[in-house]
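MODEL INPUT / OUTPUT PAIR
PAIR INDEX: 1
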Amino acid sequence: MQRKLLVTTVTCSLSIGMPACALAQQTQAAQATPSAQDRNDVQALNRELQTLKASYAQQVRQLRELDMQVQALQARIAGKTAAIPIPAVASASGSTTPNPSPPQNTIKPQANATAAENGQAGSHAAEQQARQSPSTRSLQDALQQNTSVFTRKLTIENGLTYAWYDRKQLTLNGFLALDAIFLGNIALQDVKSDLLTYDLTTRYGVSQRMTLSLDVPYLARRTAYFQGGAGGSAAATQEEATDGKGIGDVSFSANYELFTETAHRPGTVLTFGVVAPTGRAPYGIDWSTPGGPGSDNATHGKFAVPVRQPTGNGLWQATFGVSVVKTMDPAIVFANLAYTHAFPRSFADIDTDPQTTTPGSVKLGDAYTYGAGVAFAFNERTSLSLSFSDKLSAKASLRAPKGRWAKVTGSDANAAAFNMGVTYALSRHTTLVTMLGIGLTPDAPNFTLTFKIPYTL
């Protein structure tokens, strides 16, 4: 009886377990083979994920552009920058619309938004261009003094420059005896000059790529002449001084931005200028012996000096130059090269003798100017610039009527100088510019000190 019960129990267990095992195997097989509905769901989720990623990238771009707008408006309100255009905010549809009411709080995205940054090529390019352009007020002021700035519509600049010259020359009039002993007169000539120049400069932006400039200078010059050893006496020293003042040579120039600065290319500006001979020409000025027998100085009247000082060069000149600028945050590097040609001009008198009149023509030698420098921005208001400049001038030539050109000995020059300037923004429209130039060659001024106050509209 017990054996029958045991057999019956085992039979029932097997009959119940086998369908359950078959059902489990069918369920596993169904799970191993995904249905079409599951595949559709996965694709729908992927599309939604990509849409969210694109939307997030768009929001990050908008946040960055809003951040740039807020910074630009805050700087403009504080009077630290010039009126620069506010970047437009990209809408979700891809069009750009100005944002008239930027948010009060500046929001910056987190640095770990890797997925969003992959789709922000346009935003990165805009930020790179913003970093490359000297957008700060201080760098723009420094750049204006060395090349040109095209974001300013009108600038009126008042400048005052003081220059000091000191030239010494030893003159020997005699011969060598036995190749060792000099017999004759030894004279030391010294010329000291003070030059004060007031410049009224106007710059007008015709377009985003071209500006026009007009410079009207007024000069006041005083030159003192010293001569020692006159009359055979080494102890005899004479001094005479003359002065002159008046309008200088007016210059007009046009600056054109040939290439805009990019990540791999510097900004390039072409310059064409014309100098008009509106000042007093140095040719034909009479030299006379001032003083006389009744002068206080016993040695007075021993040498001649010009009766007045010139205020211009007397010739028309044309200048063509090119300058390049590259931004290297937080500084800008600039360099320039220019060529100046002077056109010959005839004068009724080119002689210094008041008793004679000698007509003739004058032609100045061509000049080449080059320089380079760097400007640093300390903050939004202050910048420092360091530069080197050099001007190489060929010899001048004179020609008598129907004669040939003859070069003037010693008329060539090499004037090199080291310049240091500081700019400080006094207000939203006004800047104070100070510059110090130190002469490096005898043909350059010993030093120059310049103060400028440009007013920008």
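PAIR INDEX: 2
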Amino acid sequence: MPDPTSPLERLRALQGADLPVHGGRTLAYVYDSGEPEVDRVAREAVATYAASNALDPTAFPSLLQMENELVGVACDLLHAPASAVGTVTSGGTESILLAVQGARDSRPDVVRPRMVLPATAHAAFHKAAHYFGVEAVLVPVGADFRADPAAMAAAIDDDTVLVVVSAPSYAHGVVDPVAEVAAAAAARGVRCHVDACIGGWVLPYAARLGRDVRPWTFAVEGVTSISVDTHKYAYAPKGTSVLVHRDAALRRPQFFASAAWPGYTMLNATTQSTRSGGPVAGTWAVVQQIGDEGYLRLAGRALEAVDAIVEMVGAEPALRVVVPPDSTLVTLATDDSCDPFTLTDELVARGWYVQPQLSFGDHGPTIHLSVSAGTLAHVDELRTALHASVAAAQASGPVAVDEQVVAFIEALDPAALGDEDLDGLLAASGLVGTSADGDLELPSRMAEVNAMLDVASPAMREALLVAFLDRLQRPVRGVLR
């Protein structure tokens, strides 16, 4: 009989409360190939290299070899020229951070650097703006949720160090007009980064399968760098992405070296120093295991699942697809008969995790699905769950936030809130509660929480969720015996 106090048994018990990472039902955060052998190879490779350190390529040359091969595969997918170089990072956010930092540092003559973003660009660019002191210039998108090339071009000025486009955008799953925007950036001598963290490992195969894919790779003149996440549609273990630059000169400002201390001369290609070899080895092994034809097959499955989801949504009068998807991301909206946050809860209750997206600008709340190859085998189950969830949400009626509460929230200044104010708001919103023994309790259903967040300003949402995270991450003492 297993010892329930052993670390591994405790891990299994703890994991019981987590979302499933296999089975194709978690439609955010994880990407499931649906192939058990891929998962087995990944686990063994990660374990084999868990103690290795990619900090020094001369100490662990096998990791350098694997990274160079992964970058080479990415270059082939992205139509990169022979001059292209790249770096394996910890994920899409780090790839984006490095693209922004490198662009900033390539222009030391610019005192107040700016980057031009479509309003749909990933929040990681705002994080980079915050970290690196680069002003984010947001440009409204068109009715099709794609970047507006003319507006993007007009926003470029002498202080612009980077222009950004998405392939596809996360919130709506559409590919921006990369060729037009990149041409405008090139005409001003400005770098153009394509955020293909989601699409980079699936759009090339979609094109090979005969899908209509807008130009977005290095085949487009003016594209200077592309980020593509291997831990998404390369179906690799969490913790890897690839950032590719058109040539070495573009990448060079990304590197950091320091001999200004008595220890070893620090030399880093990424924001990290010590890097576990586990994710690198796991990614390399998975890419080798699946291979080119395997990725073509998996892309076909994922896209077939997308088509089935679009079809099933069309059969539900209360639902619509916000915009036809260009890749593997589907965004749903509801009519007045069906509350989107309640629908989200109902789907989760039936074993399908989908991600609510709050109102933004003139657009109301939506529901996001990241579809994987592993989802295809379960689309009939999703159809049944979706139909039942819509009926349940309609029967429940809309989630209403008291008008006085709305007025109170609107009158608050997020920057002026203290801890007691935030504690009260968190309790009122239902984000946190306290059990009888004083432990923090999370809500089992989120519709009322999301409805309250939806009426709050973006600044208030940020303040509340930062406070929420702060209260979640508190020490648990007395663990070691």
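PAIR 2 NOTE: The longest strand covers residues 160-166.
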